TrEMBL record:
Keyword Ion transport: no
Cellular component, GO annotation: endoplasmic reticulum membrane
Lineage: Eukaryota, Metazoa, Ecdysozoa, Nematoda, Chromadorea
Organism: Diploscapter pachys
Cellular localisation: Membrane
EC number: 2.3.1.199
Name the record gives this protein: Elongation of very long chain fatty acids protein
Catalytic class of the enzyme: transferase
Amino acid sequence: MAQAQVSEPASIRQIFFEDWKLGKTDSFMTYWVPMSYKIGVVYLLAIYFGQKLMSYRKPFQLDNTLAVWNFLFSLFSGIAAYKLVPELVSVFRKDGFVASYCDNAEYYTDPSTGFWGWAFVMSKAPELGDTMFLVLRKKPVIFMHWYHHVLTFIYAQITYSEHQAWARWSLALNLIVHTVMYFYFGIRALKINTPRPVAKFITTIQIVQFVISCYIFGHLVFIKSYDLVPGCQVSWNVLSIGGLMYLSYLYLFAEFFYKAYIKKGGRAKAE
């Protein structure tokens, strides 16, 4: 009896430097998704022990490095948005609002949207480095920050690996917000003064992102429950986890907005 051959996962090199194909990325993601859980645990441990270690020493002066870090993320987000947002607009205009989050069409198989969607998902790993800058500079790491980072990182891997149509909106909204947000953080890292309403605007567009996401998730639950759109490409596990995740984000960011801009009437710190 012949032994079954176990296929090796595609490497990062194959995905980046050979002709992009969804099969290669799917092969890589079957190994990467379980790894993302481990990375999430390491991330949380790094925060805890990093803060313990930093309590014995002075904060690192990393303003210039942090500025470059933020500007690079802003640049990446802008390029990825340029590649992905037009596809969302095209589907929205051609097939309608519901189809834009129920039918993934060629979103994952098209070399452009498929690759840049994957690149966005992979960017969530180095994005965890945002927190390490806080730790090394001895800045507060609030619950909202680490909770949002680790959960978004893990959820993004799952969503992409299961080819969810909803990702079309998730990626577009996040990339638009991050293009603006990381550019602002880069400016702040250089100690350049910005108008007071800018920080408020950043938090506002984040909240708008979560409101749109919660609406879509609510509609998807309704669609799936009554099978209103046969073949709607969203799974219950992604839907339930994502719905709770975005509701929690909306609550946390709205609470932050209230405390930072309404109750205190000031500007929240960029960190």
